[in-house]
Amino acid sequence: MEDDILTIEEVASYLRVSERTVYDWAQKGEIPSGKIGTVWRFKKSEIEKWVNERLSSSTKSSSDIVVQIKNILSPERIVFMNHQTKHDSLVQLAQNLATAPQVKDAKELEVEILKREELMSTSIGRGLAIPHVRLSSVTDLVMSVGISKCDIIDFQPIDETPVRVMFMIGAAFNQHSYYLKTLSHLSTKLREPDLYKKLLDAQSPMEAYNLLIQ
To answer: pLDDT digits over 136-194, tens only?
Structure first.
């Protein structure tokens, strides 16, 4: 329903940000919200309007923001993994992402990625997860991709399909519009028929990279 009432947790999941971020926005009056007693509540229709307004009022309008995978990913930031736990998988991928020049604090990235995952699983179903953070120590949006040779068993996937492919995104705090647009672009891209299977079958980072930039 258009006027569904959402909790902080549901808004965080909808916007793909942390619950702390939503709470801070509500406290500062930066997001349409109301309190029932001591609990924050949000109207879905107002949140959708707020997101659209923020995207259109950014330096570039949402229609002007063009996400190109080749601008945020390179072959050396595609890694093949063999971990069964999300902790070990996230750590390996965070360490890889930290090799990008846009990431200035490798430890902070790793800590915040793990903290974000504890707050709420970043699995989006179909064997995919998109762990993501915005940090002051990241100067520009950048991504790493992890392809696991085995099922990652503890991601709490929403459809019971074990995660095998992870897209990890780090972005600067002031890149909200680009950040949301990238998440949307990835979600659309990953619906392409057979892309998931082709990534699992890829024999090299370059082969996976070429699949993603098509």
So the answer is: 899 999 999 999 999 998 888 878 899 999 999 999 988 888 888 888 888 888 888 79
Alpha helices in 145-194 (DSSP H): 176-189
> Of the candidates 83, 95, 102, which has an alpha carbon nearest to the alpha carbon of residue 150?
83
Question: What is the distance of C-alpha 89 from the center of its chain?
Answer: 15
Q: How far apart are CA 67 and CA 177, in angstroms?
A: 11
Q: Beta-carbon neighbour count of residue 81 at 10 Å?
A: 19
* Local structure of residue 102 (DSSP, 8 states): T
Tell me the CB-side half-sphere exposure of residue 110, using CA atoms within 13 A. Answer: 14
Instruction: Give the residue from 31, 40, 196, 207 showing the smallest Cα distance to 129.
Output: 196
Q: Where are the beta strands (DSSP E) in the chain?
A: 5-6, 34-36, 39-43, 78-81, 123-125, 128-129, 132-134, 142-152, 163-171
Q: How far is Cα 130 from Cα 117, in angstroms, rounded to an integer?
A: 10
- Cα gap 52→181, rounded to integer Å: 11
Residues 124 and 183: beta-carbon distance below 8 Å: no
User: From CA 189, how far away is CA 157, in angstroms rounded?
Assistant: 19
175: amino acid identity, one letter: Q
Angle at 185 between CA 27 and CA 114, to 5 degrees: 55
Query: Six-digit token pair at 71?
Result: 């601008």
